[in-house]
Amino acid sequence: MAQRTHHGFTLLELLVAVTILAVLAAILLPVFARAREKARQAHCQSNLRQMTTAVLMYASDYDDQTPSANFRADLILIQPYLKNQDVFRCPSDSGYYEVCGDHITGRHLPSIRVPNGYVANACFFGGAWFPSPNPYRSRRLDEFDQPTDIPIYADHHGNQGIVLPSVWPTHVSPAHPDDGGTNSSCRIRRRHTGTCSFGFGDGHVKPLPKAPEQVKWVGD
């Protein structure tokens, strides 16, 4: 009875197999990367939705006044409505922020270190950066004619906690440092599949390819 002879792969067969695997990897890896980033974007938008909802709940309990964003006091003031600091961190960001006591409203708040993945719109919250003639006053929800258009929070760039477009329009310039923009003072970032996630004054969240125009941030 004749024995079967087992042959190994030839060099040509190995090269063909390696080439096929390389082609498959080149096709599939970007797909997996996009899927992972889409999942992070969904997580980020969930965080922003919870934060914007917490801001509106705070305002409902305080005669429609928005919380102060002075030294990011908003992160302390809305915490009772969240009971979870993890929502302050975008899954694509690992930064932290030193939140200080809010000396503007006179409320004694502890200084704590919290995750910081989002920038606050000081034109919505009020606080130390609000422009003259009333630089330190709080704002009320009924001051905003189009709450659906005014951003409250957005994906941030760098370690800055707030944007103030009414004084520094470059804070929300369409030129983004992460994609070749030359405007180094821009404080928002397109970190999710070419978009930046925004939470708006009516509680809805939306990813946009660039920031809303300056007048939308001011809300007057």
Please give the structural blueprint.
Blueprint: H1 11-61, H2 74-77, E1 96-99, E2 112-115, E3 118-121, H3 122-125, E4 151-155, E5 162-163, E6 196-200, E7 205-208, H4 214-218
Parallel strand pairs: 3-5
Antiparallel strand pairs: 1-2, 3-4, 4-6, 6-7
User: Which sheet architecture does the biggest sheet show?
Assistant: 5 strands, mixed
Overall body shape = elongated
User: Strand order, biggest sheet?
Assistant: 5-3-4-6-7
Please tell me the overall pLDDT: 78
- Distance from first to last alpha carbon: 95 Å
Fraction of residues in helix: 25-40%
Number of helices: 4
> Cα-atom Rg, whole angstroms?
24 Å
Written description of the protein model:
The protein is an alpha+beta fold. The chain has one domain (27-218). It has helices spanning 11-61, 74-77, 122-125, 214-218, and strands spanning 96-99, 112-115, 118-121, 151-155, 162-163, 196-200, 205-208. The strands form two sheets. Strands 5-3-4-6-7 form a five-stranded mixed beta sheet. Strand 6 and strand 7 (205-208) form a beta hairpin. It is elongated.
List key phrases describing it.
single chain; 220 residues; alpha+beta; five-stranded mixed sheet; two-stranded antiparallel sheet; 7 strands; elongated
Short description:
The protein has 220 residues and is α+β, with helices and mostly antiparallel strands. Helix content is 29%, strand content 13%. Strands 5-3-4-6-7 form a five-stranded mixed sheet. It has a two-stranded antiparallel ribbon with strand order 1-2.
